[in-house]
## 1
Amino acid sequence: MTAAPTLLVDYYLRRAEQAPESVAFYSHKDATWTPTSWGQFVTEARVLAAGLADLGLKPNDRLGIMAPTGQAWESFQLAGLLLGAAIVGLDAHDQPERLLSIANASGLAGLVIGHAELLARLNPAQIPTLRFVAVITKSAPPPELKLPWAIMEQLLAKNPPRKQIEPPSPATLATIVFTSGSTGAPKGIGYTHAQVCLAVESILEAFLEITPQDRLVCWLPLSNLFQRMLNFCAAGRGAQTYFVADPRTIISHLPTIKPNVFIAVPRFFEKLNEGIDQRLARQSAFARGMVAAALRIGNAVARRQRDGRPISGVLRAAYRLADTLVLNKLRAVMGGEVRFMVSGSAAFPRWLLERFHAMGLLVLEAYGLSENVVPVAINRVSAYRFGSVGRVLRANQVKIGSEGEVLVKGGGVFGGYLTSESGASIDQEGYLATGDQGVIDGDGYLHLVGRISEIFKTSTGRKIAPIGIESKLKRIAGIDQAVVVGAGRKAVGALITLTPGTITSLADANSFQQFARRVADQVPVVLSDESDYMRPAGLAISKRAFAIESGELTSNLKLRRKVIEENYREELDSLFARVEAADSSFNEMVNSDVCILNC
């Protein structure tokens, strides 16, 4: 049996040696899917490596890549890794000042960009360590650029290198990632080839179901290390990866790709569910009734599957009919051949997991953090529990601290931040404090309560974990995001944003206020199982969406709560002034975008 790789480049080099003609990737070009074999891909990367070496990229340099998701991103990554450089992913949608901070903290020697216009977001003149810029799309350099400028097409026109490239070592730095900065400035974290390989092998061990015949989709930003690790997983199994450059088009491509395994963040699944509901709303009452009946049958079967209970012959027959008439059509939006899906980066509402499972779509939650490259825990196809983030991966050791905090140690835990004097919160036994509260049940499943930094107390001493409340508020029709606030206040409040379709339907202030009142009326309904003190006493409902560009969302679409509260300080102060004055009649427009009212 071949030993597991300890160099990331070996995932591709081995695959190219074993199956050079097999398809590795599909890229969408001119309305068709163009295949690339493993052999072609590795050859292209070796040629790019020769070109980058000519530009001056050396072992232990840092190569930044800011480009759309696609095969070119992957090619430049492998080229840099072959030369022993560390890859730094840059998200073009991030704030320019944050991009510059990351570039300088990394000490970039080279920068790969998708197109010349991206230099408006990251000025090379402000990166003193930068020695060259390479561009994927053929274009002229801006006149003010004083550095060598290389076009991918020209680099590929060079002959393959004649000399064998000296491979990196397992201890060589493979990548630098940056924390999302949801509560402060981002911090750099370096991981070696051996550490990232450990993560890839851990994922493959958890998902033995992935086969060489499978189709996966790479559509999340490749600045996200988890997406890159999944591409290495595909190479490890010989599966095919389809690149989708524009994430907004992903749904339109899925019926053609027909993925077998699909990875996404919770926001995707929330939007998917919203789209299904919108489509059902346009159907006749009879059709809606059929769907509701089919989902009830699907839910009954799914519950028994989760509980390990037998399915009666009558229920099995009813399910076959429901699946033929309805459920398979609901699954068709995902291509119809998905065996399982994986979600991470944020909490997934349990009710939504159950709804998708009733359709026959299994979504498995996973849990990880930037300071440990190996995912901490994952639900498996053969062992999952909704409401948990799964069982701990073998490469990790996890225990719950005295204050309920999840503690982890293992080979994937980082050694400290590269760009900050503050050290890692690691105890004498080597356990990293994750900052998450959690419990491990009797069957070994890890359940998260919430981020310790996000749990707050009201002035009455009540402790509030906002995530569970927020997920229930988002069940209200028309709600896009919900942020529960109230630290040091007498009661809890909530800031709510609306879906784009809802915003469009609210033509004037009167319709907005009427809609807001309906939302307030639904709050006690969706929170009926929560204690009174957990229910918001008032709402600030905004037609302004949270955005990455405004700093309110991370690139993984997590909420940056401090930024949101600062951006909405005036509205929240107005809300709490009325709540704390025990005003039971307020219902007003603060401005054309925000309505404040009591619940």
Note: The radius of gyration is 25 Å.
## 2
Amino acid sequence: MQPHQLELLAPARDADIGIEAVNHGADAVYIGGPSFGARAAASNDVADIARLAAHAHRYNARVFVTLNTILRDDELEPAHQQIIQLYEAGVDALIIQDMGLLELDLPPIQLHASTQTDIRTPEKARFLQDVGLSQIVLARELDLEQIAAIRAATDPERCTLEFFVHGALCVAYSGQCYISHAHTGRSANRGDCSQACRLPYQVTDMEGRIVAHDKHVLSMKDNNQSDNLEALIDAGIRSFKIEGRYKDMGYVKNITAHYRTLLDDIIDRRPEFARASSGRTTFAFTPDPNQNFNREFTDYFVGGRKDDIGAFDTPKNPGLPVGYVSKVGDKWVELQTDSPDIVLNNGDGLCYYTLQKDLTGLAINRAEKVGGGIWRVFPKDPMAGFKDLRAGTLINRNRDMNWTRLLGKSSSERRIGVWLRLEETAAGFSLTLTDEDGHTATVAAAHAKEPAKDAAKAEATLREHLGKLGTTPFAAMGIAIDLSQPWFVPASFLNALRRDAVAALESARAAAYVRPARAPAVEPPAIYPEDTLTYLANVYNHKARDFYAKHGVQVIAAAYESHEEAGEVSLMITKHCVRYSLSLCPKQAKGVTGVQGTVRATPLTLINGSEKLTLCFDCKPCEMHVVGKLKLAVAKASTTPLTFYKNRP
């Protein structure tokens, strides 16, 4: 990708969603392969990925496959064979975490560093660039200044910086969470996270006093960088990634369209930037991120630490306000809407908070308009089950059936600009198409020349039939007619000439498409920024060990999943701080009369049922460690431990 190009990167659970992502303006799509992706339940056949790649390449859009889990030794060869198949299927790049893959004899496919590689420092970013990774996904916790420092340390001609701009937030630094594996044996680094971060916890201090009760203190709001795109561009980001390989078609259509619109506005204002793929997209709807599932939004740490990043009350979708309860019947609820324009539909999902702040859902079986902004809704479930539902209760809507139906239809058109020129030849006529990328195709056909009886009508007919590009990926930007005199040309001949020219142009575009090149590693091999690696480096096979040893690392511990760390360790490292969010941070207390010196960053305890975790606070880098240990049952169901260097050789 060229340094001046801005890439919108959309997720795809399957090929059909990926195709719609392209149709809604994505410059690139990332999708899981048959196995070894960090979303185990979002895998796809190679044939489906080939179908997606063929569609994406029509628009010079690219397809990246996630192969971003850590691999056991016995998985390296199956992964190798899968990579060969994906390359043959037309995939443009692999998103990887396991550095052992770089020690294999891979086809010349471009490699990108997954966010799972935990890229937070200029030194780590520079190293990954120097070992041959062409695009790197930065940690979501970085601020603009840190991003700019990484850009300054890397070469924009060799390495593209990618950043998540929308979707669910992993509370841990990606790749640095082991709670799921420690408690259930399901490894987040192997695509099978149990999402302990979305559970409710009781938080207690060192004396056992309750600090917070049944709060989802590790659950983040959803990421939304809509207001920060230009600042991210100026800091050096060139690929803007939407999270969501588990998300449905409506989400991908809407969020892709939303960021396509925002990026196009920037590109139109700033001519030094360009889209990373071809064509312009038009939508049959107005994109609105609030219409999809979200836990409310945050821009996280991009502008510095903030105290409102958590979705502590519920990890569910609270929806948008629609009104309040005006009356409760035995089988119905009357709602006064906030605006007379609000329409409630059969099948809508409503919700409200109980007095205990629990989010409770209410699905509408039937909605009847009473008048004056008042609606009577009949829930699908019995009224007796709705706790604390009373007059005055505020009501939100988290599923709008009108919106769902709108996104269920064809909702966009993506067209590549093309200029048409009709000329006469000795035997008949020729038509030349030139597209916005400079590709050209000319077709000619024999036809008798018959003077037109009505010159103006003849030219209008020519333009009308030549411009009929409706079912093609092209849109006519201009039609030139270069004839010695007005000729009568039948519509059937023009249509056939146009169809043949379009097919020839599509063939020319396909032949000209070049997949991005694999970047060579620098020689001699780059030295890794540290000479010792703990379990936090996620080294799970001997090829990965060999990789780090080749790059100067002297002590290499095995990944947590090898079960060599049996005692208490950091099971999660995060920039999110529970003390800060609960206004218990010592830094917050500075300057408050009578408080300074009494608030200390002492550990807290998280309790969920029989599960207990300790929160420890490292105030210098402003980070939180969630400490725990491997469950005995998980250890007994153990994989074979790996033994690497225990001491410096």
Note: Residues 204 and 210 are 4 Å apart (CA to CA).
